[in-house]
Design brief:
This is Ig-like domain-containing protein. It comes from Macaca mulatta. Keywords: Immunoglobulin domain. InterPro entries: Ig-like_dom, Ig-like_dom_sf, Ig-like_fold, Ig_C1-set, Immune_Resp_Modulators. The chain has 125 residues and is mainly β. It has one domain: Immunoglobulin-like (Sandwich), CATH 2.60.40.10. The chain has no helices and nine strands. Strands 1, 2, 5, 6 and 7 form a five-stranded antiparallel sheet that branches. Strands 4-3-8-9 form a four-stranded antiparallel sheet, with no helix packed on it. A hairpin with a 2-residue loop joins strand 3 and strand 4. It is elongated, with a radius of gyration of 17 Å. The C terminus is likely disordered.
Length: 125
């Protein structure tokens, strides 16, 4: 029987240090069948260029008829002084709604003390 995905997680894999470097976000979706699924990324509600991310083909979950997939997004160094919100959007043929998860990253944060020496001045989740 078809089942739309019910689990979606979005995690920061690596934060940029120094801040000028890239960060990486991981989006995982599981518990869906059939394996036809579309994962895409948005930056501040605009579609991200496909060259910035890689997505796996859906893989069967061990001991189950359900599938899981993941996508990793490269978040470039600072391009503006404002934090950006990145959203992983999942579309599945058995669901009329889109599943999504967002995370706000302040990639413009710079410490006056130098790389890695901010002492928590930058904040963030």
């Amino acid at each position: 029987a078809a089942q739309a995905p019910v689990r979606l997680s979005l995690n920061l894999l690596a934060s940029s240090d120094p801040p000028e470097a890239a960060s990486w976000l991981l989006c995982e979706v599981s518990d869906f069948s059939p394996p036809n699924i579309l994962l895409m990324w948005l930056e501040n509600q605009r579609e991200v260029n496909t060259s910035w991310f890689a997505t796996t083909h859906p893989t069967p979950q061990p001991g189950s008829t359900m599938f899981w997939a993941w996508s990793v997004l490269r978040v470039p160094g600072p391009t503006s002084p404002q934090p950006a919100t990145y959203t992983c959007v999942v579309s599945h043929e058995d669901s009329r709604t889109l599943l999504n998860a967002s995370r706000s990253l302040d990639v413009s944060c710079k410490s006056p003390l130098g790389p890695g020496l901010g002492g928590g001045l930058c904040g963030g989740p």
